[in-house]
Amino acid sequence: MFTKIEDFAAEWTSEAEITATVLDALTDDSLGQEVIEGRRTLGQIAWHLVRSLHFMTSLGLAFEAPSGGEEAPDSAAFIASEYRRITKNVLNAVRTQWNDESLRESVMIQEEAWLNGSSLRYTIMHQAHHRGQMTVLMHQAGLRVPDVYGPTYDTWVEKGIAPLV
Ligand code: NI
């Protein structure tokens, strides 16, 4: 759980930048790559990363919703630009509408009391979870996966180093 707004701000900024770099590597053609037949596609997971951030309004934060509807857009560039816009809105809302005290306040979510500082932690982990799913699908779609927490397989190969098994 976060106890200081600025600790969240630092981590959010670096996590959002990693995710934005991953989204930048998507192509329009790759968005249809499915987890398995009939399940979520790469484009739907990417769009879920953008849209799911709006759940934070249920914590009492106010910020503009992403453009477009529930259906995943067919433009990878649009998804990435909406992601950048919404993640900046989230940070701005947390910084201007909450203070360190707000992080110790709780909100009922599905009949459970969630501390706001824990909800912020959950939000970062939820993003990382789906970003990890995306990088697997990106490999399957034949895309170059950028570095996430350090070099990816492709980076090792390009550097002429044998990738770890
Ligand atoms: Ni999710």
Report on this model:
There is one protein chain. The chain has 165 residues and is mainly α. It has a single domain, classed as dinb family like domain (Four Helix Bundle (Hemerythrin (Met), subunit A)). The chain contains 5 helices and 2 strands, in the order H-H-H-E-E-H-H. It has a two-stranded antiparallel sheet. Strand 1 and strand 2 form a beta hairpin. Helix 1 packs antiparallel against helix 3, helix 2 packs parallel to helix 3 and helix 2 runs antiparallel to helix 4. The longest helix is centred in the C-terminal third of the chain and has 25 residues. It is globular and about 50 Å long.
Q: Ligands bound here?
A: nickel (II) ion
The fold-level CATH name is: Four Helix Bundle (Hemerythrin (Met), subunit A)
Arithmetic mean pLDDT: 94
The CATH homologous superfamily name equals: dinb family like domain
| Portion of residues within helices | 40-55%
Keywords:
single chain, two-stranded antiparallel sheet, 5 helices, mainly alpha
Could you provide a short overview of the structure?
The chain has one domain: dinb family like domain (Four Helix Bundle (Hemerythrin (Met), subunit A), Up-down Bundle), CATH 1.20.120.
Task: Compile the SSE list and pairings.
Layout: H1 5-24, H2 42-51, H3 76-97, E1 106-109, E2 112-115, H4 116-140, H5 153-158
Antiparallel strand pairs: 1-2
Helix pairs in contact: 1-3, 1-4, 2-3, 2-4
